[in-house]
Q: What sequence folds into this?
Protein backbone atom coordinates (compact mmCIF):
# COMPACT_ATOMS: atom_id res chain seq x y z
CA UNK A 1 0.00 0.00 0.00
CA UNK A 2 1.34 3.41 -0.97
CA UNK A 3 1.82 5.89 1.84
CA UNK A 4 0.17 9.25 1.42
CA UNK A 5 2.17 12.08 2.93
CA UNK A 6 1.14 15.71 2.51
CA UNK A 7 4.09 17.73 1.24
CA UNK A 8 4.49 21.22 -0.20
CA UNK A 9 4.42 19.58 -3.62
CA UNK A 10 1.15 17.80 -2.81
CA UNK A 11 -0.41 21.10 -1.74
CA UNK A 12 0.84 22.83 -4.90
CA UNK A 13 -0.68 20.05 -7.03
CA UNK A 14 -3.97 20.38 -5.15
CA UNK A 15 -3.97 24.16 -5.74
CA UNK A 16 -3.31 23.58 -9.45
CA UNK A 17 -6.25 21.17 -9.56
CA UNK A 18 -8.52 23.79 -7.99
CA UNK A 19 -7.40 26.36 -10.58
CA UNK A 20 -8.09 23.89 -13.39
CA UNK A 21 -11.54 23.29 -11.92
CA UNK A 22 -12.09 27.06 -12.13
CA UNK A 23 -12.74 27.53 -8.43
CA UNK A 24 -12.90 31.13 -7.22
CA UNK A 25 -9.76 32.78 -5.83
CA UNK A 26 -11.34 32.84 -2.35
CA UNK A 27 -12.16 29.12 -2.54
CA UNK A 28 -8.65 28.27 -3.72
CA UNK A 29 -7.12 30.29 -0.89
CA UNK A 30 -9.42 28.73 1.73
CA UNK A 31 -8.96 25.14 0.57
CA UNK A 32 -5.18 25.59 0.30
CA UNK A 33 -5.08 27.10 3.79
CA UNK A 34 -7.21 24.25 5.17
CA UNK A 35 -5.03 21.54 3.61
CA UNK A 36 -1.90 23.29 4.89
CA UNK A 37 -3.35 23.36 8.42
CA UNK A 38 -4.29 19.68 8.11
CA UNK A 39 -0.75 18.87 6.94
CA UNK A 40 0.61 20.43 10.13
CA UNK A 41 -1.73 18.23 12.18
CA UNK A 42 -0.70 15.02 10.42
CA UNK A 43 3.02 15.97 10.23
CA UNK A 44 4.84 13.12 8.46
CA UNK A 45 2.24 10.47 9.27
CA UNK A 46 0.55 8.48 6.54
CA UNK A 47 -2.76 10.11 5.65
CA UNK A 48 -5.31 7.33 5.72
CA UNK A 49 -9.00 7.13 6.45
CA UNK A 50 -8.45 6.32 10.10
CA UNK A 51 -6.29 9.39 10.65
CA UNK A 52 -8.69 11.67 8.80
CA UNK A 53 -11.76 10.58 10.75
CA UNK A 54 -10.00 10.38 14.10
CA UNK A 55 -11.36 13.76 15.04
CA UNK A 56 -14.49 14.09 12.90
CA UNK A 57 -17.81 15.70 13.66
CA UNK A 58 -20.24 15.57 10.77
CA UNK A 59 -23.21 17.93 10.59
CA UNK A 60 -25.96 16.91 8.19
CA UNK A 61 -28.82 19.21 7.17
CA UNK A 62 -31.76 16.99 6.30
CA UNK A 63 -35.40 16.33 7.14
CA UNK A 64 -34.95 14.78 10.59
CA UNK A 65 -33.08 15.22 13.88
CA UNK A 66 -30.71 12.50 15.06
CA UNK A 67 -27.34 11.84 16.67
CA UNK A 68 -25.16 8.83 15.99
CA UNK A 69 -21.74 8.05 17.40
CA UNK A 70 -19.30 5.52 16.00
CA UNK A 71 -16.19 4.49 17.92
CA UNK A 72 -13.29 2.33 16.82
CA UNK A 73 -9.81 1.94 18.27
CA UNK A 74 -10.37 4.81 20.69
CA UNK A 75 -11.44 7.24 17.97
CA UNK A 76 -14.91 8.69 17.77
CA UNK A 77 -16.96 10.10 14.90
CA UNK A 78 -20.09 12.02 15.79
CA UNK A 79 -22.91 12.40 13.25
CA UNK A 80 -25.53 15.06 13.90
CA UNK A 81 -28.58 15.52 11.68
CA UNK A 82 -30.76 18.62 11.89
CA UNK A 83 -33.97 19.58 10.15
CA UNK A 84 -33.06 23.27 10.33
CA UNK A 85 -31.00 24.75 7.53
CA UNK A 86 -28.17 27.26 7.56
CA UNK A 87 -24.39 27.26 7.39
CA UNK A 88 -24.17 29.29 10.59
CA UNK A 89 -26.16 26.68 12.50
CA UNK A 90 -23.92 23.89 11.25
CA UNK A 91 -20.71 25.76 12.01
CA UNK A 92 -21.82 26.79 15.49
CA UNK A 93 -22.97 23.26 16.26
CA UNK A 94 -19.60 21.87 15.17
CA UNK A 95 -17.65 24.50 17.13
CA UNK A 96 -19.63 23.78 20.31
CA UNK A 97 -18.78 20.09 20.08
CA UNK A 98 -15.21 20.27 18.75
CA UNK A 99 -12.38 19.10 20.99
CA UNK A 100 -9.52 19.16 18.48
CA UNK A 101 -6.99 21.93 17.96
CA UNK A 102 -7.88 22.24 14.26
CA UNK A 103 -11.39 22.75 12.93
CA UNK A 104 -12.13 22.48 9.22
CA UNK A 105 -15.42 23.02 7.47
CA UNK A 106 -16.07 21.25 4.19
CA UNK A 107 -19.06 21.36 1.91
CA UNK A 108 -20.24 18.43 -0.19
CA UNK A 109 -18.16 19.73 -3.11
CA UNK A 110 -14.89 19.45 -1.19
CA UNK A 111 -12.05 17.91 -3.23
CA UNK A 112 -9.46 15.91 -1.29
CA UNK A 113 -5.78 16.49 -2.07
A:
Amino acid sequence: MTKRIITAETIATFKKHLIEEEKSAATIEKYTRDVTAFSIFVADRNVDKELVVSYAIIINQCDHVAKRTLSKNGKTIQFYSFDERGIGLSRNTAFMRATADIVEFADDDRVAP
